[in-house]
Automatic annotation (TrEMBL):
GO MF annotation terms: protein histidine kinase activity
Keywords in alphabetical order: Kinase, Plasmid, Transferase, Two-component regulatory system
GO biological process per UniProt: phosphorelay signal transduction system
Matches recorded under Gene3D superfamilies: 1.20.5.1930, Histidine kinase-like ATPase, C-terminal domain
Taxonomic placement: Bacteria, Pseudomonadati, Bacteroidota, Flavobacteriia, Flavobacteriales
Chain ranges of the Histidine kinase/HSP90-like ATPase domain: 128-217
Keyword Cytoplasm assigned: no
Enzyme class: transferase
Keyword Transcription part of the UniProt annotation: no
Species of the source: Chryseobacterium panacisoli
Record protein name field: histidine kinase
EC number: 2.7.13.3
InterPro entries: HATPase_C_sf, HATPase_dom, Sensor_HK_TwoCompSys
Amino acid sequence: MKEKNVQHEAEVLHQKKLVLENIKAQEEERKRIAVMIHDDIGNRLNILSLWLNNLDTQGDELIKKNIYGQMSSLIDAARSISHSLYPVNLESVGLVLYVEELIANLSHKINISLQVMPGYEKKDLFAEVQLYRIIQEFTTNVIKHSEATDLWIYIKDDPENTAVIISDNGQGFKYEEVKKGMGIKNIESRIKSMNATHKWKKTISNKGSRLIIKIPKYHEFPNQTSTD
């Protein structure tokens, strides 16, 4: 009985730590977004305001050109921030097209190949959002840390599971050394939210990393009160 109590206390403590880490992660994300909005969009709006106040001076055409240029950049920045918060168009266009858009946006940084096998069926919005976030997180980590030149995404529906394999040709990593990092935690928490299983493996060429995910065909995810 004493041993069971110790185990229970350890589990409760572990769960509390997970909750605390999750709250901290959310606060850090909110802080990052606030800084992005303040430093980027806020400063550009201030510049636009100053220019608009000077439209009655000489050089109006040049000022207007600068304003239009800044407005275009501002729209792009707002779109980028919006995407970082939530994939707003995923529900209408679906996971595959949204991942293809991500690939196009990152084409100047890394070569990404997407292979979706015939027979793939659109998933529930919650599952597709989680899969997109996993692919986005994996890709971001690879670009930041692995020095990879190529990344591959493979998606296939089986009778009982949906298999998703993401791999790269970068430096790879030792799971035990990086498992506490927020990138890995974010990926694994999203996998768990879909009641899925996963493995981290070396690639066939022993370079880079490989993530294998299997999502149950039925009961893909527990009841959720939100979509992200």
